[in-house]
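Researcher: Please translate sequence to structure tokens.
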Amino acid sequence: MSSSSARLIDGKALAQRVRSEVAERVTQLKDQGITPGLTVVLVGDDPASHVYVRNKALACEQAGMNSNIIRLAADTTQADLLELIHQLNHDSSVHGILVQLPLPAGLDEHAVIEAIDANKDVDGFHISNAGLLLTGKPLFRPCTPYGVMKMLEDAQVSLRGAEAVVVGASNIVGKPMALLLQAEGATVTLCNSKTKDLRAHTLRADILVVAVGRPHMITGDMIKPGATVIDVGINRLDNGKLAGDVDFDSARAVAGAITPVPGGVGPMTIAMLLVNTVEAAERLLTH
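Model: Translation complete:
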């Protein structure tokens, strides 16, 4: 490894600090008679989803919140799922509702997300929350991009006037990521699978955020020297190991700062889910 290797942005350590702050806010809410509650709905038996859901529930419990996992069979009908969401919308002990994606084939993800009360949409995917984010007045920021912003802030990466390139244009990460960076004064380029000459774009980036789901897609020769590289990808390789979308070893030799996989963005996503849930509960006190 070269002596000029990038400093690591440790998502695990930052997530612990965020979770401690959340636990303090939960204690304050409990003193006022409110215990924040998150309900996660898991449809079907996707093994990765099971792991994510378990981790989310555990994080909630550690912060002193109520967490409830509702597991439904893969053949659950759209009508039954919507009826359950309707019940959760009207349950005052539930402050956050999260339907774990992806849903089994035959279920309409868009309709399911739209059925969630926007004030309980702690994932920040509801069309009204997406619109509020677009207009610069977010109610809930989607957890992964929100976590990335927190990491950049903690690492004291200057965003004003910086060239930021986001690779991957999903509704869950890429698009909201671009909006959040733009809101902080960055000049943002949003690349997708049809981008011509991706390398020309990534080489301009002072801040490069990669969220594609293709292991080792971004290599060191695609990175501007000294850039901050945020790797959102989590891919399981054939040998069972986890890898990001960035080729870590070659990137680390060029970048100024970089997130590892695992231990980077992943822990922050869950930490910000807790932040959104506690915020949803706190809003009840101000209304």
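Researcher: Any highlights?
Model: The chain has a mean pLDDT of 96.
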